[in-house]
């Protein structure tokens, strides 16, 4: 270790700072030696003890051999003669804790040393999950060398995540995803060192999750008998995620976003059959009746079963977009409000508190959407708040830990036009665009959260903004959300990737480097633009973000630097 550090220092002194390889997310500390070692023909990854690390070692060893990566951001003609240093014979893994439970707070730190003299590389990790993260980084150091061989850029890397919660939200209720597409998303997440799949599994449109305690919900509420997740499917997803260090957190959204329950229990619901435009954020209308005893018993059964099936300590209790305009439609709610002299909001907050207390009896910690707190309710301070509207500091100041998914940055479904029918606003009788037309040209085009969130926009979000050390709550991390009104497994790769990689980097690396300088889109750009192709080479159908010509002529497509191109 000492020798390699000395060499590293010398290499930096001689100016080899840019080894032209592209790591994403960028590790907290990378010292390039400006060199590369050839991988020996019988290169081995040794030392794995945890079965998931053993599998990962095999998987990454095959990946680097199949991928034979050639960076796209380096012009082909300028690629260096590679493998000039020694021969790398092995990567030895050493893990301090092979048995840590994959859960909130797990230590994912690792140190990776690929010495410039070759020989043995080492990966030292605090836990088995850290080893999986380090293997991913190692795979990104490897690329195609001379004579059909492989080389590894040599470097000393010390790394850990800035935020422990780095998620993707998948919505399998508006449109269904077959299990294999969820697994592929988990693969892509692991390439990006993301570690939480937030499964928004049910909603007003369909109920695809089988419950042993209430099989009627998916029998009647799924789109078809083929669009149901069986206990075996759920187990498959949990296990697959675990093997890649990805936690599965389930959300049963309620009391709104539940209309599908009416297929089997109409008596538990309010506003069923009413026009959605008056009583819900989107069709169909229908919310759980907060004072119906049968509805509450159902809620308890579902939470008992879900918290039993999903091993994570966190449980997502939903809680967004309640429409209190719905409640005067239901006589029992009106009577309750009068009897107890309560507003509809107060009834909602009371119900949420009862729900959060019940989750605690199941030995879980709740996440809820920010809505009831934003609207004036107060929830137990250990409740994790997931934001989509307000800045995270609003809730850290109140003592809540926060997961950030601000819709104006992290909703990756936005900007695809409208999906509700019979909307005359698309018709422009004059065929002329006018400044008054804020719908079509220059307007939102029917997408409530327009425009499309670009990777540059996503990367520019600082989750620590105005969150003070004195705040009793902290930011746990973020999630990029793919709501499924206009997406499903046919488009999931391109809708999420590569843009979610911009989110993944600020979740892992943070918005500030180890010298406390704000990370910039300019610095991120070459790594990101290369990563698009690397994701594609790994079987993820990431969307192109520029003509390949630009990738092959780095910076020639930049807006503001003609001088750099000329130089
Ligand atoms: C009902 O609640 C309001 C607001 O808290 C209060 O001002 C009012 O006195 C209450 N009425 C009764 C009958 O308790």
TrEMBL record:
Glycoside hydrolase family 20 catalytic domain mapped to chain residues: 163-510
Enzyme Commission number, as recorded: 3.2.1.52
Enzyme class: hydrolase
GO BP term, example: glycosaminoglycan metabolic process
Domain Beta-hexosaminidase eukaryotic type N-terminal: 23-141
Pfam families per record: Glyco_hydro_20, Glycohydro_20b2
Protein name per UniProt: Beta-hexosaminidase
Species of provenance: Phycomyces blakesleeanus (strain ATCC 8743b / DSM 1359 / FGSC 10004 / NBRC 33097 / NRRL 1555)
Record lineage: Eukaryota, Fungi, Fungi incertae sedis, Mucoromycota, Mucoromycotina
